[in-house]
Amino acid sequence: MKKTFLSLTSGILLLGVVAFSSCQTADSKNDSTESEKETTESMNEPTESKKMLRHVVLFKFKDSSTPAQVKEVEEAFLALPSKIKEIKSLEWGTNNSPENLNQGFTHCFFVTFDSEEDRAAYLPHPDHKAFGAILGPHLDKVLVIDYWTQE
Its quaternary structure (predicted)? Predict the structure, then answer.
């Protein structure tokens, strides 16, 4: 009878420990779930994004310009960010639209500035002017559009 009582007592004690552990695990799971919810919610909150000034430049080259001359213009434009600190980024590419609405413009350069003051420093900058001297003999038309990013 003592063995049965001890076994029964041990079993109840063991059951109590397991039950208590389960509650602790469930509570910590709820805590981490709450923490995960807070993290997810803060990640989904709208953040203040900084507006950027975009300077879009499209070039149409003269028919007489050779591929080597066009390449020289590309390289000269791509060198500008290393020479003009106000340029925050530069992206570029050549037209590949199947719509045939490019009106002869083949190259797009996408320059980003933080402010109108930065753009104002860029436009008369000696390195920008030197680039213009390289571009000039090969340029048929240019189209420039500047805008502030919108969200």
Answer: Homodimer.
Residue 144: closest CA among 126, 122, 127, 125: 122
Question: Which of these, 50, 72, 71, 70, lies nearest to 60 by C-alpha position?
Answer: 70
Q: Are 77 and 142 in contact (CB under 8 A)?
A: no
Cα 144 from chain centre: 23
pLDDT in tens, 42-92: 445 545 678 999 999 999 999 999 999 999 999 999 999 999 999 999 999
> Whole-number mean pLDDT of the chain?
81
Q: Are 67 and 106 in contact (CB under 8 A)?
A: no
| Extended strands (E) in the chain | 53-61, 89-94, 107-113, 139-148
Cβ-proximal residues to 145 (8 Å cutoff; 6+ apart), any chain: 56
